[in-house]
Every structure is written in structure tokens, then in C-alpha cells.
Fold these 2 entries.
Entry 1:
Amino acid sequence: MNYLKFFLFVIFASAIFLTSCKDDDDVACAESTWYEDADGDGLGNPDVSESACDQPSGFVADNTDTDDTGGSSATGTPVSAFDEFNSNAVTVSFSGDEITIESNALPDHTSPYWATTNSLYIDPVIADAGQMSPGAITSGSYTVTVPADPQIASSTSATGLGAIGIAVSGAPIFNDEEGPNISLSEQVASGFDYAGGHMGPTGYHYHLESSDVTENTTLSYDDESLVGILQDGFLIYGRKCNSTGDHPADLDASGGHTSSTQHSNGDEFYHYHIINEFYVGSYILLFGVDLKGTPNTIM
């Protein structure tokens, strides 16, 4: 009889223990729905999901991506454009409806502004050595967070001194000013390298479109290539338009229009082009007009 009581007690205790464990598991695991993010833009495909306690690899909590193929998506900026950026200099991250671009400012092309000990150093091929600014290219830090779907603002905004964008090479883009209320001159521009850049107090940066020389193997020259992204979140392309194959005739005063590009899978979105006009002498500015969107601070 005592043996039977002991046996029943063991069975009862085991049942309580198992039930307790099961209850603990239920409390610890609250499943959520996760959506596939095939193109890595931080936005999930509402048609492909799974439930799990922990976030599965390649899935996100967001479910607003209407095109998860890497082309034009729910965002206004086609995410495949960021594949053009120099990955050794630029890091792009997506968070909800924002995109953050960080750069160490080290371009991936040759220049006489590199230190002579650097493998990317070349003798000047465009720059007038006597007009070159002092200093050599060193790493820097530029960060800007922009809307994933930038909008044209109710009024345009003038750009200021310093970086107004980040180029695909990783170097910052500047406007048409060389100093406070001092416009870029032909003499100063004669000291720029073939990439349209030179050294300044904050480091190496671009003002001009690059030159058509054999040394230029990466940067836009009178073509449709992506140049970079400006501080209002709109992309800037070369002088030609992918949708027409020629210089666009419908640009607004900021050099922008709405059309498809090589990155948008046929969808149209607003973007800038280098304006096909000489600024001084034979030099063409990357961007010397007002921004159409709301500027974000480049830190």
C-alpha cells in the first residue's frame, strides 16, 4: 500500500513538473510575424511571411515593400542605386523610412592629391601643379540620414559651404563656392584633378564633373552614370538621362526631373542630373543651384 502511494505521488509530481515547464515555454516565447526582405532595404514583402519567436535571417518586422526585388520599392529612392557606391568607403543602412549614408571620404580612384607613397597617387594629368591646393587625401567622416522617400519641398533651399552630398566614390560633393560668398574661379579650378576635386580645410572633395581622360575609369563624364546622393535625399546622375540616352530637355531650375533610371526597373522618380552647361571656362559644376527637397545635415 505504501508502495502504491509512493508511485502515485511520483506520477503526480511529474505531471506538475511537465505542466510547469510547458507553461514557462509558453510565457518565454511570444511569436511575431516576420516578412521577407529579399533586397535588404529594411522593408518586408507582405506576401512572404513566417511566425517565429526570434527574428529569422532575411526577415524584418516591416511589411510595406511592394517590390522586394531590388528595383524601385515602396521607397522613392531605388535601393539598387546604392550598389554603385564604393563599399570600401561608404556604408548604407536602412531603418524604417530612413536611409543613413556614412563615408570615410577615401575615393577609389587615382589622384595627384594622394600622398606619393599611396598606390593611387599619379602625377597631375589635368591639374596645374602650380595651382594645386596643399595637403594630401586622408580619411574623414561624413554621415547623413535622408528620407527613403524624399519629397519635393514647397520651396527650394540654397546649399551652404561644406559637403552637400556624398559621391559614389565616397568623397563629399561641394557646391560652387570656394569660401563665404566667394564663387569658384577658373584659376582655382585649374588646380583640380581629373576627378573634379581638390583639397580644402576639411579634406578632399569635388566641385566639378570629372574629365574625359584615360585615367578616369570610374567617374561620370557626359554620361548617365550615378554621381551620388545629395543632402535632401535625391540622387544625382551624370549629364545624360538613361530613359532617353541623351541630355534631358525637361530639367527644372535645380537640374531635376522625374523619369526612370537604370536603377528603377522602369518606374519614374525625381532625381537630379549634372546640368549640361559650362560654369567657368570649360568647367561643368556637379551642383551649383538650389535643392528641391528638404536638406539634411551632413555631419
Note: The helical segments are 2-28, 186-189.
Entry 2:
Amino acid sequence: MKTPNLIEKAFFLKKTPLFSGLDLDALLAIADKASVSLFQAGDPVFTFGQGGATLYVIVHGKVQVLEAGGATLGVLTVGSYFGDESVFGLGIRGYGASCLSRAMLLSVARTHLHSIVSEYPSVAFRLLEQYATAVSPADRYPIREEV
């Protein structure tokens, strides 16, 4: 796998749902801060309960999301992102992630993302828009039994 340069990273990010609505300047800023990580099949990206402050985007390969007991919650492919909850939340991973194949991931650390958002507020709005569409009303407003 060839490591992408700055322009290639920016154009890849433009094709992902998370960053598709951003202008080129914002994409270049994110691409500049994004690190490239290579993994082999079976390599963990992170484990359940581990601390973290990094958002990942899959450039190549497949990543499985695992619950605490190791059961697969889902499989993510090219263009998918994960780890975002640790960037905006407390930083404790509520699931694990492991590579099912050779994989290339772009990663953006919390500190980098915060500096990008301060320079390009459109990034924050795009992230909020993605969260608003990703969370279903059933998740936001669970039925609670009366006591």
C-alpha cells in the first residue's frame, strides 16, 4: 500500500460521508494533521476500555467493531470512521476495533481536530450534522418505564 500524500489524503476525505461537505481549505487542514497508520489482519486498533483521543477513517481494508466480550458488533469498510466518541467524550473506548485485513487508516488526534475546528468552524457543523443523522430518535429518547 502506497502512503498517500497531502492532496491524496484531502481528496480521499472529500469522498467520505463525514467530510464530504467541507471545502478544500478545510480538507487540506485535516489532511495535513492526519497521520497514516498501517495494520495487518488481526491487529487491534484499540481495545474496549482503553483510553483514547483519536478519530480513524478507513482508507483501505476492513475493521471489525467488538463489544467488551469480543463479539462482533459490525464491520466497517473504506470511508467509514470510528473512534470519534473518544475525541468528543471522555476518552474511554466503549468498544474495541480490530483489523480483518491489511488496513490503512487515517487518524486525527483530538488536539489536532480541536485546532482545525477553531480555524474552520464548518468542520464542527459537519461533525454535528453527521451525529444528528446517525443517532435515531429511539436512541436519543428511550422508552422509560414508570416507577
Note: The domain at 6-133 is CATH 2.60.120.10 (Jelly Rolls).
